[in-house]
């Protein structure tokens, strides 16, 4: 989920003026920055809906990893005159049939039969080895990320008719073997069910993906900003089996943070994730993320952007040499270092706001900070005129349209077959980012933006 966040430069054009009259010195008291805001900025709760698809082929692959070698062993002959061992001889094949899972299990069967006068006038034991397949039909349910099945053996298919050799003659014993298998078919089916249940618990993989997504990653080395996703609740509907795939709806409730400075710790804990089964959920993404601009970077860009511009009133003119800005008591402070008719630094304050039509951030309720060391000279009084202030305020705006577009572009790689871990693939689309609000901290300007869209997850090829 690398950079929902875009570092955007901020706000305003100020004035450059060329002096035509004698300069006066203005000495204003500098408003000290606020230093009580936290370093972590938490957005509103986000909801990410991700329909999940698991092909039957993936269940088949996981089943074959668990179901190997000897899969059934009955070593007691006294109860029914037979011993039996069944080995898986080739990979199990799964398919979907009318909303159920059909399994075909190639197998090798070894049977030891005890027979006496009640069978062929003999009293002996005979070992029989058979090759064939068992067909099972299973009701499948995937709930809370775990697939469970209830299987019933439908048929036995032999590569050749079971027989034993007695005094040089091959005597068919299908009549003996099949009833014996039918007696134990419930036990054999349960063995298959146990193997499916063991091999298709997807919860560890899902939690592994969440842990991967929760690892903080850097979004801007230049501005030392990090993004951190904090999952809190995970929702999932019961699965539906159709068209050779299992589908369900997953929803993630989370918060998103941007952190300025050192890399934050990964605080993800699997045991703290609340797993909630639900009947249905909306198939959409509703996310609030953030864009961060430090005051240092904004000051540097603004100083460069507005070099050469002027403000004048009559014969009085000034140039702005440098722009600095910081936060104090919920307002933005703009410091203007000037030369010309007035020399020194003046301070403006205002509230950042947003124009949704032009996609521009601007200052509202802008005013001068008037705590000067001495009374302003008449020469400097023109700076306080409403007309000059309005001109300054008109220039104090900055379009973030390009930054919003860039934020969406930076998300695209994570919605185009993105694989946070082997065998898990994420796809989706997002609508345009929409501005939500601006917050000022002691370190940076944080602009929160919202987006919506759709995402999906496919599990195929896990280790």
Please describe the topology of this protein:
Elements: E1 24-27, E2 40-42, E3 46-55, H1 56-66, E4 70-74, E5 82-88, E6 93-97, E7 100-115, E8 124-143, E9 146-158, E10 163-166, E11 169-172, H2 174-199, H3 203-213, E12 217-220, E13 225-236, E14 240-242, E15 245-260, E16 274-277, E17 285-294, H4 295-305, E18 311-313, E19 316-328, E20 331-340, E21 342-355, E22 360-368, H5 378-381, H6 386-395, E23 397-399, H7 401-411, E24 418-421, E25 424-430, E26 434-440, E27 444-459
Parallel strand pairs: 1-21, 3-27, 13-16
Antiparallel strand pairs: 2-15, 3-15, 3-17, 4-5, 5-7, 6-7, 7-8, 8-9, 10-11, 12-13, 13-15, 14-15, 17-27, 18-19, 19-20, 20-21, 21-22, 22-23, 24-25, 25-27, 26-27
Cα-based radius of gyration, to the nearest Å: 37 Å
Q: Care to count the β-strands? A: 27
Main sheet makeup? 12 strands, mixed
Distance between the termini: 23 Å
Structural class by sheet pairing and helices: alpha+beta
Strand content: over 45%
């Amino acid at each position: 989920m690398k950079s929902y966040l875009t570092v955007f430069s901020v706000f305003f054009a100020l004035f450059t003026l060329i002096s035509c009259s004698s300069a006066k010195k203005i000495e204003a008291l500098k408003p000290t920055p606020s230093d009580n805001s936290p370093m972590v900025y938490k957005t509103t709760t986000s909801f990410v809906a991700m329909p999940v698809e698991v092909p039957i082929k993936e269940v088949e692959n996981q089943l074959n990893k668990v179901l190997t070698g000897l899969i059934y062993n009955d070593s007691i002959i006294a109860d029914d005159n037979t011993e039996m061992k069944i080995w898986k001889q080739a990979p199990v094949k799964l398919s979907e049939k009318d909303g159920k899972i059909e399994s075909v299990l190639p197998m090798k069967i070894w049977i030891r039969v005890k027979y006496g006068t009640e069978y062929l006038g003999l009293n002996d034991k005979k070992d029989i080895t058979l090759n064939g397949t068992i067909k099972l039909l299973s009701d499948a349910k995937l709930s809370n990320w775990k697939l469970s099945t209830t299987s019933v053996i439908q048929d036995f298919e032999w590569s050749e008719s079971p027989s034993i050799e007695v005094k040089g003659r091959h005597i068919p014993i299908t009549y003996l073997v099949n009833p014996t298998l039918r007696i134990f078919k419930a036990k054999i089916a349960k063995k298959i069910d146990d193997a499916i249940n063991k091999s298709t618990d997807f919860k560890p993989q899902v939690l592994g993906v969440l842990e991967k997504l929760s690892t903080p990653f850097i979004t801007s080395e230049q501005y030392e900003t990090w993004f951190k996703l904090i999952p809190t609740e995970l929702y999932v509907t019961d699965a539906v089996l159709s068209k050779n795939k299992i589908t369900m709806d997953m929803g993630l409730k989370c918060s998103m943070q941007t952190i300025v400075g050192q890399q934050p710790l990964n605080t993800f804990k699997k045991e703290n994730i609340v797993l909630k089964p639900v009947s249905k959920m909306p198939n959409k993404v509703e996310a609030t993320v953030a864009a961060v601009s430090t005051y240092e970077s904004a000051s540097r860009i603004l100083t460069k952007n507005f070099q050469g511009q002027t403000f004048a009133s009559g014969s009085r003119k000034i140039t702005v040499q440098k722009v600095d800005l910081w936060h104090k008591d919920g307002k933005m402070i703009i410091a203007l270092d000037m030369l010309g008719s007035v020399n020194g630094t003046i301070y403006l304050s205002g509230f950042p706001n947003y124009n949704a039509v032009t996609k521009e951030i601007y200052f509202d309720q802008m005013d001068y900070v008037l705590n000067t060391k001495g009374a302003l000279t008449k020469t400097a009084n023109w700076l306080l005129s409403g007309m000059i202030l309005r001109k300054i305020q008109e220039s104090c705006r900055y379009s973030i349209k390009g930054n919003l577009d860039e934020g969406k572009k930076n998300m695209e790689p994570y919605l185009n077959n993105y694989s946070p871990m082997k065998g898990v693939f994420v796809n989706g689309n997002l609508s345009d980012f929409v501005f939500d609000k601006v917050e000022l901290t002691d370190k940076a300007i944080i602009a929160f933006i919202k987006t919506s869209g759709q995402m999906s997850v496919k599990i195929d090829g896990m280790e």
